Amino acid sequence: MRPTHKRLSTLDIFRELDKSNCRECGLPSCMAFASQVYQGQRQLDECPRLDPAVLSRLGGKLAAGSEAPWSGEEALSKYQARFGKGVDLAGRAEKLGGWMRAGRLVFHCLGKVFELDREGELHSDCHQNPWLQVPMLSYVLDSAAKDASGDWVRFAELKGVSSWVRFFEHSCVQPLLEMARQDPVLLQDILQLFAAQTGLDGFEADASFLLLPLPKIPFLFTYQAPDHEFPEGFAVYLDRTAEDNLDPESLFRLGRGLAEMFRRIACRHGLPLGAG
């Protein structure tokens, strides 16, 4: 018989945190963080000061007690309310790397076509995910629409991202590094599938892949095979203009969404990876 767990309350989760209200998670208090974990808007392992033993002990109970993973509904409602006040999609289209068709703003994202209407609703033949839709709305509303500069930096080097650095490393970089260690050929095949460009100059790496989850938000992934002197390396870079073209949380959501998409594809090919 499968074991059952008592549903954890917000207070149960709060009791397991260090209660320092450090704000390193981006929220004002540990109670606010516990509440979002309970609602499924955040994951428990997003607490940068969490004791790993706590996560191990509560993992099953959280799976039984939490709501669905982050759905983006709150952020989506906020951005769509701003769309409701009127957005000049046609005036923004060319600046953002898109075009207009039948009153909708059209983008190529990872080689697929997505259309955004005047209410902020996303239309596509592809499966739609909040990790793309929410950043896309932020991109349309607030992006400075700067062209890529070619100045590639780590996420932590961007301005204004300090609250999200640990989460980006944990939820984007580390899962991809794990994939690279288990099956580097499969990971490179997956990256190749979505890449807008490969083999970029200026990187001491065996392979590099440029992906465009949004037209002016390029992500660059590099892989270096291990040798007798150095271990294998996997790195994620963003163009310096990302700090002007998208807010830090949306950059994190894009990175995490990409890593989760690659993980699921790898799992379908038999790579034994843990849940995201």
Structure description:
This protein is an alpha+beta fold. It has three domains: 10-65, Electron transport complex subunit B, putative Fe-S cluster (3-methyladenine DNA Glycosylase II, Chain A, domain 3), CATH 1.10.15.40; 73-142, no CATH class; 152-268, no CATH class. Helix content is 41%, strand content 16%. It is built from ten helices and nine strands. The chain has helices at residues 10-15, 30-39, 52-65, 73-84, 89-93, 130-142, 165-182, 184-194, 242-245, 248-268, and strands spanning 99-101, 104-109, 112-116, 122-123, 152-153, 197-198, 207-214, 217-224, 233-239. The chain has a five-stranded antiparallel beta sheet with strand order 5-9-8-7-6. Strand 7 (207-214) and strand 8 (217-224) form a beta hairpin. The chain is globular, with a radius of gyration of 20 Å. It starts with 9 loop residues before the first helix and ends in an 8-residue tail after the last helix. The model is unreliable at 1-5 and 63-68 (pLDDT under 50).
